[in-house]
Design goal:
Elements lengths: L2 E4 L2 H21 L1 H5 L4 H17 L3 E4 L5 H14 L3 H35 L4 H10 L4 H16 L4 H29 L12 H4 L16 H27 L9 H19 L6 H21 L4 H4 L3 H25 L4 H15 L2 H15 L3 H30 L1
Parallel strand pairs: 1-2
């Protein structure tokens, strides 16, 4: 008989913080993790998820209560928007479209690999899409939505496979990003244009580094002011989402975190142009890093790793091949096309994150890299914008094309 223990909100929040401490401790004592910048929430989250999996097989289930998880995600994407002043956008605008082109080409390749292997292994070709961009570039939400579509129109039950594939991708995206990018940085002897170490906020006041080791000079007042602005973006994103749903404006329907990001862009550029208020980038940096770390810790500690164990062997083979293909693509293609420099290496690590998992995983990969190698503001602007917004549109178009071709 399975016994379920419900963990309260406060206790669940404490476990999420503990996940980060576990990740930090393991990272400090295991040279491999430290050398290749495996994000601390990934390490700590997997440790806790492994413990929960062992308990699951002993018929004990822990049910966490994490009402803040979505809010923390919205808070982080708000800080991405708040960090994107029009000066930085003008400097990196071209790179956004180049990176979008690379990511779009990869989605076509990802589905080609999935469909080809599914056919070779005796599965339905549509299952190759499930083990392709539906779950790997799309994530759990996209996987659940397409599973419902497949069930309604093609009489295929793919939900369990989709959730398992998305879980596998989330884990692997966080694991391979750091090693791929760090290998590029070490091999080509790349350096951040802002240098390693030192006080970047002092030398470059407009810089948001997302470096958890950065020294920050903040006050209680500046933290409260910045937190108010971030929460304004969060609340505004939900209001916009409700309005779009109420008026059924289909072309404006997007995930709430996209609204939060663009509200942040609007606010920071309005304040910059009017000069009525100066955004405190150090506070944006701190609050964004904390929100992202806690969000990922909550997501990873809630993983049901036994869903991966339940994967059919053919699907597991497809996912392992997808992991290798993405690592090679990011290493040989993304890096070179994006300029073969330090920013390109960090973007390659980010591409591994959202190409197999989700945009927050991509950003955490990059955060681990910049904590060791120095800031890369261009990467933190380009990757989230493409991963959080544009890539979902491209993914939908590519999937429709593949389905039309297969059927």
């Amino acid at each position: 008989m399975n016994t379920v223990y419900s963990i309260g909100e406060l206790e669940s929040f404490l476990v999420a913080i503990l996940v980060l401490f576990i990740g930090h401790t393991v990272n400090r004592h295991v040279p491999f993790f430290k050398k290749y910048n495996i994000p601390e929430p990934i390490i700590g989250g997997l440790v806790v998820a492994a413990v929960i999996t062992v308990l699951h097989f002993q018929n004990i289930t822990l049910a966490f209560s994490l009402p803040m998880q979505n809010t923390l995600m919205l808070m982080f994407f708000s800080t991405v928007g708040l960090a994107a002043s029009y000066k930085l956008l003008a400097r990196g605008g071209k790179k956004v479209f180049i990176f979008l082109g690379i990511a779009s080409i990869y989605i076509i390749l990802q589905n080609a690999v999935g469909v080809s292997l599914a056919t070779a292994l005796g599965l339905e070709p549509l299952m190759g899409l499930v083990a392709g961009s539906i779950t790997l570039s799309g994530g759990h939400g996209t996987g659940a939505a397409w599973s419902q579509t497949f069930a309604d129109h093609y009489n295929m039950n793919t939900l369990e496979f989709a959730m398992a594939a998305a879980t596998f991708g989330l884990v692997m995206g966080g694991i391979i990003g750091g090693p791929v990018a760090q290998r590029l940085i070490d091999k080509h002897k790349l350096e951040s244009s802002y240098g390693i170490g030192g006080n970047h906020h002092k030398d470059h006041p407009d810089l948001v580094t997302y470096d958890q080791l950065e020294e920050d000079n903040v006050t209680a007042k500046s933290v409260l002011e910045t937190l108010f602005i971030i929460m304004l973006c969060v609340a505004g994103a939900r209001w916009v989402g409700h309005l779009v749903a109420s008026f059924d404006i289909s072309w404006l329907k997007m995930p709430d975190f996209v609204y939060a990001l663009f509200l942040g862009v609007v606010i920071t550029n309005l304040t910059e142009m009017t000069r009525g208020y100066k955004m405190n980038n150090e506070c944006v940096d701190i609050l964004g890093t904390v929100a992202l770390s806690l969000f990922l810790a909550m997501a990873l500690m809630s993983l049901k790793l036994w869903e991966i164990f339940d994967l059919a062997i053919p699907l597991l083979i497809i996912l392992m091949v997808q992991t290798v293909v993405l690592g090679c693509f990011a290493y040989f293609v993304t890096f070179r096309v994006m300029g073969s420099n330090y920013d390109a290496a960090v973007m390659a690590g980010g591409h591994c994150g959202f190409g197999m998992g989700a945009t927050p995983t991509a950003v955490m990969n990059m955060g681990a890299l910049v904590s060791r190698n120095g800031p890369s503001p261009q990467a933190f602007m380009v990757v989230p914008i493409v991963g959080a917004f544009f890539i979902d549109i491209v993914n939908l178009i590519v999937l429709q094309g593949y389905i039309g071709f297969i059927l």
